[in-house]
Design goal:
This protein folds into two domains: about 290 residues, Hypothetical protein af1432 (Orthogonal Bundle), CATH 1.10.3210; about 170 residues, GAF domain (Beta-Lactamase, 2-Layer Sandwich). The chain is of the alpha+beta class. The protein contains 25 helices and six strands.
């Protein structure tokens, strides 16, 4: 039974179509993952001061996503900001929570779609148009001097969501829709209604509701009304117009069609951006189309400690030192220090343990089991001289290669065995202020692995910790 026959049997309309769409998504297993990741990222974008660490954690939970966001943050789109970005924390500090959040959302969407139907030429062509539309939208937002251009980029990408979902999950129906629309994007909604009983805009907006995407993104998915009037740059209506224009321009460029000047004239006055600037944005995006292929690049990664861990640490320490000179709060510096350790040493997890009254608690962490592990890391005051207490009281940096060694295990605190059950090796870097222990930086590797820590690597980690603590020095105040 073909998909078209199945849709006919279920009946044209919302219920039958969405039942089948969610079923196909569930079978693939990709979109539920997108839904979860999108929600985590979107929720972390609401409060910049409070949620920088939450956003960083959400992105770092997916290494491939981490590398692609960092690569894009260093791309030509953002080169004017200056300075190399090597961590998500620094990317958030330089570009802002919203910018990185929107980048992560767009990358996650494209990755999910790509994994769904990797061998479909039609689906890949539609994805390429969507990516090109995002690049065009970024150029227009920049010409309009918008601070949050990434929001416009994501809206332009999501504007195509209905087309992408049908192209990926209903290729036969998509071919029919494309034929009826004769390559005219503005005719696709009506064509979709004839073929599947529902418009592409409705598919996109229902998906956005299901995934609880931000309202501004959801509202940008529908095509604008026939009468296009001037809109204030950055408003929901303006973003919707940019998304629509970018999609049409991308389709023209991808299919080699003429008529760009006419299209620019149609939208130009409403966008309140000079026509020449709009045309330049399209030309620049097309000429830099290879830049958007960064989203398709695969990143090789082996779990555990990298062979060049020392070089990574040295580079990370240099970047950390430069960031401190720009003036960071202790919280932002702590996030950056932790991520530097995490990415350089390939730890299974890293945690900042900080004092809270008479108790030491896990406060911030990246990696396996986060953030649930943090709630388990509570070090109450104790007179028992366990390994952690001795290290903190004597401000002694330690590396334990095998926690199962009887000489080690008998000196570990009871909470370690119940909270960190998957650890084989760990590094502990105590933090002290005025000769008083205030916490520690902790990193571990899991069971089944065996790594050593060179003296030079421990020295670099110690220097990272010392520079972090230097922020609290009276001389720095």
């Amino acid at each position: 039974m073909t998909e078209h026959t199945l849709i006919s049997r279920l009946g044209k309309g919302h219920s039958g179509f969405f039942d089948l769409l969610w079923k196909r998504m569930s079978e693939k297993g990709d979109f539920p993952a997108l839904s979860s990741a999108a929600q985590e990222i979107a929720e972390a974008m609401h409060d910049e001061d409070r949620n920088a660490s939450e956003l960083t954690t959400a992105i770092l939970s997916d290494f491939a996503l981490t590398q692609k966001v960092i690569r894009l943050a260093n791309s030509a789109m953002y080169s004017a900001l200056g300075g190399e970005i090597t961590t998500i924390t620094k990317a958030v500090l330089v570009l802002g929570v919203d910018a990185i959040g929107h980048l992560a959302l767009s990358v996650r969407l494209m990755d999910t779609l790509s994994a769904s139907v990797p061998d479909s030429p039609t689906a890949k062509a539609e994805m390429a148009k969507s990516l090109l539309a995002g690049s065009i939208a970024h150029g227009i937002a920049a010409k309009a001097n918008l601070k949050d251009a990434e929001e416009v980029v994501v809206c332009a990408l999501m504007h195509h969501l209905g087309r992408l979902l049908v192209a990926f999950y209903f290729p036969e129906e998509w071919d029919e829709i494309a034929k009826l629309a004769s390559g005219q994007i503005d005719a696709e909604n009506e064509a979709a209604k004839k073929v599947i009983g529902i418009s592409l805009d409705e598919i996109a907006q229902e998906s956005a509701k299901r995934w609880r995407l931000p309202a501004k993104i959801a509202n940008s998915m529908a095509r604008p009304k026939d009468s296009i009037g001037p809109s204030i740059p950055g408003s929901a209506e303006w973003i919707n117009l940019v998304a629509s224009f970018s999609g049409e321009a991308a389709a023209m460029a991808a299919e080699g069609k003429s008529g760009l000047d006419k299209l620019v004239g149609k939208y130009g006055d409403a966008l309140l951006v000079p026509l020449e600037a709009i045309s330049q944005s399209v030309e620049s995006a097309v000429s830099h189309a290879r830049e958007t292929a960064l989203l398709d690049a695969e990143e090789s990664w082996t779990e555990g400690k990298p062979e060049n861990a020392g070089d990574r640490l040295a580079s990370g320490l240099e970047g950390f030192s430069s960031a401190l000179k720009e003036g960071l709060s202790f919280g932002n510096a702590l996030n950056l220090a932790l991520e530097t350790l995490y990415m350089s040493m390939g730890f299974n997890r890293v945690v900042a343990i900080l004092r809270d009254g008479d108790t030491l608690k896990g406060r911030v962490g990246f990696g396996h089991g986060m953030p649930e592990v943090l709630s388990k890391l509570v070090l109450p005051e104790s007179t028992v001289p366990d390994l952690f207490r001795l290290a903190l009281q004597n401000n002694a940096d330690i590396f334990i290669e095998n926690v199962a060694d009887p000489k080690i295990s008998e000196n570990l605190p009871a909470w370690f065995g119940t909270s960190l059950t998957d650890v084989r090796s760990f590094v502990l870097l105590p933090m002290s202020f005025n000769n008083h222990p205030v916490g520690a930086l902790y990193g571990d590797w899991g069971r089944g692995t065996s790594y050593s820590v060179e003296k030079s690597e421990l020295a670099l980690m110690r220097s990272l910790r010392d520079q972090l603590m230097g922020i609290l020095s009276p001389a720095k105040k």
